[in-house]
């Protein structure tokens, strides 16, 4: 999949720079989210891979399916992608656009998986500690997994903090076996 992300990168950067200059990051994000979701549908994937449809026909079908969810600038973007036979890259383009947007807005999506429910007060303390440590605004999603035994696992981008008993036992077993 490295190839797809490499191919998608210049389109994502171009869309991001255009959206940032226009001051419409949220609008572009919404449009790209819809287009990416449509492009991931099985029937649409077949359409986009089919050599029997011209680029214009593929763009027209995408625009029809997306309807009014795309801005006029996003419609032009979809047409450019179609002309270059890159519509299948829309999910990757959207993903990279969101990473660029998060970096610009200094936000980070964090998932916390805990062995037991975490109170609102604990969530606020954890969010503020992570915000200070990571120097970003943290949007936190919390879930419960009783298989962790105790503790929690925090995933923030590429960073994973495993404070669970299960994780510690796995590290101990690995140390003993090596």
UniProtKB/TrEMBL annotation:
Membrane topology: Peripheral membrane protein
Organism encoding this protein: Porticoccus litoralis
Cellular component GO terms, alphabetical: plasma membrane; proton-transporting ATP synthase complex
Protein name: ATP synthase subunit delta
InterPro entries given in the database record: ATP_synth_OSCP/delta_N_sf, ATPase_OSCP/d_CS, ATPase_OSCP/dsu
Family: Belongs to the ATPase delta chain family.
Highest taxon in the source lineage: Bacteria
Subcellular location: Cell membrane; Membrane
Record function comment: F(1)F(0) ATP synthase produces ATP from ADP in the presence of a proton or sodium gradient. F-type ATPases consist of two structural domains, F(1) containing the extramembraneous catalytic core and F(0) containing the membrane proton channel, linked together by a central stalk and a peripheral stalk. During catalysis, ATP synthesis in the catalytic domain of F(1) is coupled via a rotary mechanism of the central stalk subunits to proton translocation. This protein is part of the stalk that links CF(0) to CF(1). It either transmits conformational changes from CF(0) to CF(1) or is implicated in proton conduction.
GO MF, any single term: proton-transporting ATP synthase activity, rotational mechanism
Alphabetic keyword roster: ATP synthesis, Cell membrane, CF(1), Hydrogen ion transport, Ion transport, Membrane, Transport
Main localization category: membrane
Gene3D superfamilies per the UniProt record, alphabetical: N-terminal domain of the delta subunit of the F1F0-ATP synthase (1.10.520.20)
